[in-house]
DNA sequence: TATACGTGGTT
DNA sequence: TAACCAAGTAT
């Protein structure tokens, strides 16, 4: 036993209990119907930082729309973003398509099955590489996500701060020994499923736990205090003013966000960050007159709060009219009708603006 | 290593 | 209700 953490740990008994429990208790999920590596891959990307219940309908629609790696590789960026609209972390789908293109071009459409090759693909980090390798190819690679860190920190009474990037490696080291070489797929999924159904963040269901006899935290009565996780900073509010510019044909002006950064390449209504509530309308009016030659601004028609992980947009929405079509269209600026607007992918806050004001 | 990167659900 | 959480990755 090289690993100190596994001293006196009944490794084989633990594996069997976990794997058997998984086969008896796993949820029926759409991505569990096939071991096709492309399908597993798509599901793993969608599930990053995203709840299972949220992912299910997106996954089903996405697989109908892009059933194979070739279909996704050939798709327009507008279409893949639209398919991802509302899921968040939009670079995931652009990285996924970029990586799928590479798989089609460099690997003949077959998802590579080595750690080195698969890890070199955009958007495939240590967790996703391990998940695909174990689930699609049966390889004994660890797949350390938040569930796994929580479950293992309790089972082995590990008091590392799981918010720190370095913690993941510690869990991987243990798992290289602990993982079932017989059924790595069920073992990895079992660890995650246990975290999702039994070994939950708060009030874990220890009385139902298949590996309770192996749990050091339970033995010590400290399961509720694990894992250790340092707190994140609060997101800072930003005051924003958005503008619905209407022309005489009833169309509205939308623009494409920059290629990098927050909500990259999604569409939005023109907007600016403003300095203060009191001066907001003047700030917006000065900017809008210069940009779009608008006539008078309306009173605020709507307010929307958009909470991100690291910041909060507090958006006040105004309207204004222009004569004719003074603003030319371009790649990043379009006049669209109420019907046409559905084809474009917007962040949720701007979807709310559409629903309320368009 | 710390931070950017979305969104919706739960307590 | 504010805080926390959810199958992470890129930089």
TrEMBL record:
| Cofactor mode of binding and number, as noted | Binds 1 [4Fe-4S] cluster.
SMART domains registered for this protein in UniProt: ENDO3c (SM00478), FES (SM00525)
Q: Which PROSITE patterns match?
A: ENDONUCLEASE_III_1, NUDIX
Q: Name the chemical reaction catalysed here.
A: Hydrolyzes free adenine bases from 7,8-dihydro-8-oxoguanine:adenine mismatched double-stranded DNA, leaving an apurinic site
Keyword line: 4Fe-4S, DNA damage, DNA repair, Glycosidase, Hydrolase, Iron, Iron-sulfur, Metal-binding
Source superkingdom? Bacteria
Belongs to which family? Belongs to the Nth/MutY family.
Identification of the protein by name: Adenine DNA glycosylase
* Organism classification: Bacteria, Bacillati, Bacillota, Bacilli, Bacillales
């Amino acid at each position: 036993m090289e690993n100190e953490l596994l001293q006196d740990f009944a490794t084989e008994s633990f594996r069997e209990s976990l794997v058997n429990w998984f086969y008896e208790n796993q949820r029926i999920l759409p991505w569990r119907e096939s071991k096709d590596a492309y399908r597993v891959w798509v599901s793993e990307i969608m599930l990053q930082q995203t709840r299972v219940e949220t992912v299910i309908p997106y996954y089903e629609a996405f697989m109908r729309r892009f059933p194979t790696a070739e279909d996704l590789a050939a798709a327009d960026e507008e279409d893949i973003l639209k398919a991802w609209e509302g899921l968040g972390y939009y670079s995931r789908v652009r990285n996924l398509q970029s990586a799928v293109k590479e798989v089609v071009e460099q690997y003949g459409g077959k998802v590579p099955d080595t750690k080195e090759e698969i890890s070199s693909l955009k958007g495939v980090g240590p967790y996703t590489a391990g998940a695909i390798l174990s689930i699609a190819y049966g390889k004994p690679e660890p797949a350390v996500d938040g569930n796994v860190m929580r479950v293992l920190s309790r089972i082995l009474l590990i008091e590392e701060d799981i918010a720190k990037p370095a913690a993941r490696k510690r869990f991987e080291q243990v798992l290289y020994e602990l993982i079932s070489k017989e059924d790595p797929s069920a073992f990895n999924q079992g660890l995650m499923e246990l975290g999702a159904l039994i070994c939950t963040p708060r009030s874990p269901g220890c009385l139902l736990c298949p590996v309770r006899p192996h749990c050091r935290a339970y033995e010590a009565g400290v399961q509720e205090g694990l894992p250790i996780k340092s707190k994140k900073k609060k997101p800072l509010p930003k005051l924003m003013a958005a503008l619905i510019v209407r022309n005489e044909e009833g169309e509205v002006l939308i623009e494409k966000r920059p290629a990098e950064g927050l909500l990259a390449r999604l569409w939005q209504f023109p907007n600016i960050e403003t300095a203060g509530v009191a001066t907001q309308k003047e700030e917006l009016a000065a900017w809008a007159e210069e940009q779009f030659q608008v006539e008078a601004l309306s009173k605020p028609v709507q307010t929307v709060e958009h909470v991100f992980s690291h910041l909060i947009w507090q958006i006040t929405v105004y309207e204004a009219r222009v004569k004719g079509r003074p603003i030319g269209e371009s790649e990043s600026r379009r006049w669209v009708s109420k019907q046409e607007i559905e084809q474009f992918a917007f962040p949720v806050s701007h979807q709310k603006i559409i629903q309320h004001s368009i």
